[in-house]
Structures are given as C-alpha cells and as structure tokens.
Amino acid sequence: MARAASARRRCGESRPAGAGAASRAPRGRCGARCIVGWRRRSSAGPCRVWRVEAMASWVALSSSVVEYFEGEDFYRCGYCKNESGSRSNGMWAHSMTVQDYQDLIDRGWRRSGKYVYKPVMNQTCCPQYTIRCRSLQFQPSKSHKKVLKKMLKFLAKGEISKGNCEDEPMEPTMEDVVAGDVALINKLDIQCDLRTLQESLESEEKKKGRSAKKAESNELIQSQHPEEKLGSGEPSHSVEVHTVPKPGKGADLSKPPCRKAKEIRKERKRLKLMQQNPAGELEGFQAHREPLFPPKAKSNQPKSLEDLIFESLPENASHKLEVRVVRSSPPSSQFKATMLESYQVYKRYQMVIHKHPPDKPTVSQFTRFLCSSPLEAENPPNGPDCGYGSFHQQYWLDGKIIAVGVIDILPHCVSSVYFYYDPDYSFLSLGVYSALREITFTRQLHEKTPQLSYYYMGFYIHSCPKMKYKGHYRPSDLLCPETYVWVPIEQCLSSLENSKYCRFNQDPEAVDEGRSKEPDRLQVFHKKAIMPYGVYKKQQKDPSEEAIVLQYASLVGQACSERMLLFRN
C-alpha cells in the first residue's frame, strides 16, 4: 500500500536535542519558521523512535500535527462484507485540538484511536453519513422508556426481564467501527504513545487480584439518587400514549375522565344560559366557572428523560449503579487504576458477543483503538467542569465495571466513539441505555457550557439495517456530503430509499462554504521548519506532491488547513 509504505520510510531527519528545544521558532528569510536546537540522527536504524520523540516537541509549536496518507484505499467493508468495496481517505493525528476535531467531524471525518478517516462517499459501498441528535429537544420513545423502566426494576427489586432483549449497541462490532483500517494501521510503522501504559497493563494482567486504587475526589459520578443529578439542560416532554386497558384493569384513558354530578349540572346551566343569551352577556359567569376539562395536576405530567433515569430507588434497593467519567487521554490516575478491569470487560464482550477467539482481543488492540487519542486535554474556564478531550464513561454496578462508553467531549458536542459491556448483563439492553445516558450527559454539560448541545452518534448507514437504529434518536440531522450543512433526517430518508449516495442540500446553487480557497496558506512542517504551502511548493520537484497536498486541503477545509500542521517528508 502506498500510504503504508510512506509511513515505513527511514529518514535522516533531525531530532530535538532537548525537551524545550522547540519552544519558539524564529522565522527565516523564506518565511518559514525554523526550529533551533535540533541535531542530526545517525542514518543507521529505523526512524520509529525518532518520530515519536520528535512529535512530542512539535506539539510545542502547534497542538495539531497530522500526517496525511495520499491516495484512497480499498479494503473489506465491515458492514456489507464486500472484500474491496469500502473506500476512504485517512491521516494519522499525532496531536489534535478539540476545536480542530470538532471542525473535522463537521466535515465527515471520524477517529479510530489516532487514525482519522473520511469515507469517499460517492465511491464507497456503504456510504456513512455523520449523524447528530439535538439532545435538548430529544424525547424518549416508548421503546426507550421500556429500557429505562427495565433498568429501574432491576436496580430496585433485582427483577430480570425475560424474552428477547432490545439491545442496540452504538457500534455493533469493532470491525464495523474501523472497517479495514485495523489491518492498515497495524501495517503503519508508527509507535503508539500509550506504549508505556500498554506495557503496564500487560504486567497488571499477570498479577491477578491486585486491588484497584481509590478514585480521586474530582471524578464525575452520576448515581440513581435524585440529589446527585447535575441538571437537565432543556427539559424534554415525552408524548403520553393512551392505551385501552383490559377489563378490570383500570380506567380507559382513551375516553374523557369521569365528572361529578355537580360539575355536569353547572355545565348544563351554562349551556342553557348561552342559548338564552347568544350575544355573549355571561362573561362574569364564564370567568368563574370550572373548565370543561380541568388541567391535569403537575404530578400527572409526562416524565422527562432525567426523571426516568434518576428516579429515586428504595433504601433497600437490590443494586446500586454509578456512572463515572474518567479521562482516558492523557490517562488519569482513575483511568490507570481501572484499566485492567475495563480491558477484561472488553475482552469478554468481543469473545462472547462477536465470537472472537481468545487471542484476538489483545491489549495492543484495546489501547490503540479505545484508549489512545490525539485530542489534547483542555480545561478553559467557560468549558465543562471535566474539561474537553477523550474520556471513558464507566458503568459501575455494585462496585464492578459492567460497561464502558468511549466518548469525546468537544466544544459543541459529546461524540460517541465506541461502547462495550459485560455479556452477562445483555438483558439490560445496555446499548440503548448508554445512548440515553450519554444524551442526558450532553444536556448536563449544556448547563455549564451553553454552546455544547449536540450528541454525535458516529455514522448513519441507511443501507445497513443494523445501523439504521441511530435514526430513532430524534430529532436528529444528517450531514450533507457535498455542502456540509445539517439536514433533518426526515428530509433525507426518501432520497436514501432511492440511492445509497445522496446530496441532502436541495439548493442546487449551494457550495461548500468552508472549502479550501487559499491553499497557499496551508501550514506545512518540512525539514525542521513550519512554512505556508506557498513557500513549500517552490522547494518541491515532485509533480505528484501538489496533488497530494491539494487533496488534503480540500478534505479538511480552509480553517483546519491553516491551523493544523501537515507533516511532509
């Protein structure tokens, strides 16, 4: 593969002489910013170790450093199983700001570990449309409420529902998430920056029975106790569904409520007087009369999503559930203390649910795709209390982890990356439950950070039945693959029934407003210097280089191309 070969190149580039060598970069005569304090590495040996060390220093210059892999790759599709039908563009993100990633996912990109990819929508076998739920207006459906009530019954009384579970995992399999990228990334000769963490996990796995460290006090915990609810954002109002009961099972709510004889007599009197005075001379009487259908008491109003999730449990409840949000990158002490237990849940999930052999769910795979992240941890004063970046949302039942949601908290959204759970608790429909908890979490973060209001569910694949369920979390929008504007999913479904690939924006004159308009302003890192592409291209003799850089610029857009550093050899 061309991109794999490019990543395996050996090089005689320079490396930093010290950790602070590149704190500031003076600008040279050509307009490039030169990095001082670098020394030449011996030409012997591969450049893998150098690349990792150098990238750490490059972050000091720019928080987003990416390495784009030219061309487009064909590989096996994890959805329709076509051996060479899936096609995408990709880049390795050595480091990335949350704003840059927010802008990228708003242009159809998505990450798997540090690998960031964008499907070639009009050529891939199963077009993948970015989908987001408007969490503030979200209303749980009848099936969503059933899942929440099932959880409450289990926690309160230990009741286990019989029959088929309605679990709809946010990402059915690891293969569906990363498709053929697993094989590709394994071929890339790039060291994972969680190598030390991975080694420590492997050593921890051998030491059975080692006690976990106590979680720190600043860990975000959500329990079922109502006093610990963080806030509801903008309350949603679910629709009350009236059903006709069986004989002897209560009132028929589809009919008007029963009324007292006194109330009926008043109504008859009012109607009689109205017939005698058609001109409307009874304002005084009407103002004091009781309404025909008295308003419902506040206690009878439909419950919000928060009310359903945080409903009070009896003191003698059978089980206790807590949801803890721990930072996964850079790994917090809470994350390190629970990583072995989390990995064991993931391993069982892959073996039991997806029938993987015992040797396939490796520690390396777990750390690379579910723990490693290019996102920089950011804690601005006006941001959420937990900050921005990558996190694991751990579900603790009676003191043990039963499920984990991998999420990114970004300036405008909570982005779901992956979810896995202990197969012993499949009867709780944890895939649906976790999605509802993540929507609730988004609304809670909105209380402190008003601009954060969306819940991104990854990709919606209309041609794949097991991925269409994401459209059930409404109101939701799909991203137009040509103009990158959001369109309500209801307006897209009819088009998708006729064609796998669709332009959702109905304005034929509309264009991509964020497209690359000035490629010469794109930032390039080349030979120890940062320079605009206008300077870089004058130094190049390879005619194919321009096509590669321009392709990258068109995919990431003007704003990201000016902020992110594109590493070129």
Automatic annotation (TrEMBL):
The keyword Hydrolase does not apply. Its EC number is 2.3.2.8. Residues 341-480 form the N-end rule aminoacyl transferase C-terminal domain. The keyword Secreted does not apply. GO terms for cellular component: cytoplasm. It holds the Pfam family ATE_C. Residues 76-146 form the N-end aminoacyl transferase N-terminal domain. Residues 14-25 have a biased composition (Low complexity). It catalyses: an N-terminal L-alpha-aminoacyl-[protein] + L-arginyl-tRNA(Arg) = an N-terminal L-arginyl-L-aminoacyl-[protein] + tRNA(Arg) + H(+). Signal peptide: none annotated. It comes from the Eukaryota. Residues 1-25, 201-256 are annotated as: Disordered. Keywords: Acyltransferase, Transferase, Ubl conjugation pathway. Residues 203-217 have a biased composition (Basic and acidic residues). GO terms for molecular function: arginyl-tRNA--protein transferase activity. Belongs to the R-transferase family. Involved in the post-translational conjugation of arginine to the N-terminal aspartate or glutamate of a protein. This arginylation is required for degradation of the protein via the ubiquitin pathway. This is Arginyl-tRNA--protein transferase 1. The lineage of its organism: Eukaryota, Metazoa, Chordata, Craniata, Vertebrata.
